[in-house]
Design a protein that fits this description.
Blueprint: H1 3-26, H2 29-40, E1 51-55, H3 62-65, E2 72-77, H4 89-99, E3 104-105, E4 109-112, E5 125-132, E6 139-146, H5 148-155, H6 159-162, H7 164-167, H8 172-184, H9 186-191, H10 196-210, E7 222-223, E8 240-246, H11 248-265, H12 280-287, E9 291-297, H13 301-304, H14 317-321, E10 335-342, H15 356-360, E11 367-374, E12 379-381, E13 387-389, H16 391-396, H17 402-410, H18 419-424, E14 426-429
Parallel strand pairs: 1-14, 2-6, 2-8, 4-7, 8-9, 9-10, 10-11
Antiparallel strand pairs: 1-11, 3-5, 4-5, 5-6, 12-13
Helix pairs in contact: 1-2, 1-8, 4-17, 10-11
Amino acid sequence: MNSKVKLSTLKKGLLPLSLAVSVILSGCASFGQGIAEAVLEKSEGEDSRVCQVRGKPFAGIAPSLAKKHGKTKVLMVHGVGDRLAGYSTEFLEKLAKELDVAAKSSTYKDIQLVSPVQPEKNLGNLRITQLKNADGSKELLFYELTWSEITRAQKELLGFDNSGESSYKRAEVNDMMKKFGNDTGPDPIIYLGDSRVPILRAFSQSVCWMGKDGWEQLPTDSRVACTTKDSFSENTDRDAFVFISHSLGSRITIDGLQRLASVLENPKKYSTASYDLTPLPRMRQLLQQKNIQIFMLSNQLPMLQLGRELPEIAGQKADYCHANGARYGSRLFNQTNLIAFSDPNDLLSYAIPHNFSEKYLDSRLCINVTNVNINVAKIFDAFGLGKFANPMEAHLGYTKDDRVIAMIAKGIGNQQVAPLVKEKCEWTEITD
């Protein structure tokens, strides 16, 4: 066989492989899965995906559900890309099953978010779902924030590029990739501009509604602003607050909490005719007793810190978070456990490096960091050409991964850790 024939045969053999890789990268599962499986997947074997946890132990959501007093409240904040209300339904169903609160569910309530400062401006949607176990002894209130409405109009500037005017000139796979980029790429840029304030107001409104006593005190399908005057009841200190965020949503969550810390420490600086400042000192006292958890999926804090100013209060954790610290009375929370999930094959995900929180995160949050290095995407052997993992699955697959959900539900380093996490994950406790 001559060299030309060999070259032709090689090209024919590589063509399906290159096509499959391109389709996978496009994120179009409906078209790419069949080709990808045919070309890349081997027979199912033992799951050897990595799951390494390093940091402080954390409890997860389950222990708060077992308490007789107080509510368990979880706020979900999405990342880049256009979202519609209900985007977290699959994740919520899996989480509810793991927590044994899937037996009873209320009809959800939608609140069209607005701010007291600009009541005419829409800030997105907050969907609240109430879930219970069979005997009603456990109750979970799940708050899903959808802020896409704020950035949607600006992203219409790229609408011409998604239309036939431009898209017909592209190869099909490249067109899918370009449309995905047009949907997700602008959001971090928009967030750095004028839209940052309304997005943070949407987050603040969501936290305000979390401060309500419970399900009965929440409005149904209303467009109404929440104010501190009618939020954060005397039971707030007994309620468990949990935040779950994805990609840009993690930056929004941290920025929103840092802004809340500043408002509570210096309310006069942020005062307007729309705010009643009277409840703020009591609200601050209630929050200062709380230990909260933030689960950051596809964590991007290091990348999204680039080019940004340092927080207002940084490098002073001992002063704010130790009982004998000079500023202990000015902390926001008693303790914040930040659990950062990142897949090494997620091109947009990062672990939180040593001392990052001390320099770049507000000291008033009293943050402890735990890093979860986890393969949520399968790794394939591409016919001996090298290992390959779908970067789209690695970025989006956290909410479908049973190990991730089990850790959010029952934590690690405690007596109630899920059997799956015990079996599949390695934990190394990092002491101060």
